[in-house]
Hints:
The chain is of the alpha+beta class and 158 residues long. It is 29% helix and 35% strand. It contains 5 helices and 6 strands, in the order ααββααββαββ. It is elongated and about 55 Å long. The mean pLDDT is 95. This is DUF4442 domain-containing protein. Pfam families: DUF4442.
Amino acid sequence: xxxxxxxxxxxxxxxxxxxxxxxxxxxxxxxxxxxxxxxxxxxxxxxxxxxxxxxxxxxxxxxxxxxxxxxxxxxxxxxxxxxxxxxxxxxxxxxxxxxxxxxxxxxxxxxxxxxxxxxxxxxxxxxxxxxxxxxxxxxxxxxxxxxxxxxxxxxxxx
Length: 158
């Protein structure tokens, strides 16, 4: 579904799996080139050690690269299947306070994906996300492998 950055921001803010884990979309960049996300610590997402539950942190990072790619290419008229194929996550510091992260797609990232979608039909690549506490310290680093399939691609063999 093709939607504006502002509308998707509000849809994601009230999407129950994010809302109840206190995951808040601050904004989507113009043209879906990036997103800024905050994770607020609350009684809804605290673990036994009084830090943010690791599943909440992972849930915050999981959907955004696929969403960015889907919106960018849907606005260009592509019919797609997009999802997170896999991820690796490394917790480096306890998340004892609110967290935040921003991700950005470069023109090169988008051009590479478009070229591969048009020549091979599917694009698979891992993208990093670092999640920070209020002091600017990295609490979590992860790699999110994104899968994008061009549903209109027709493979030709010679």
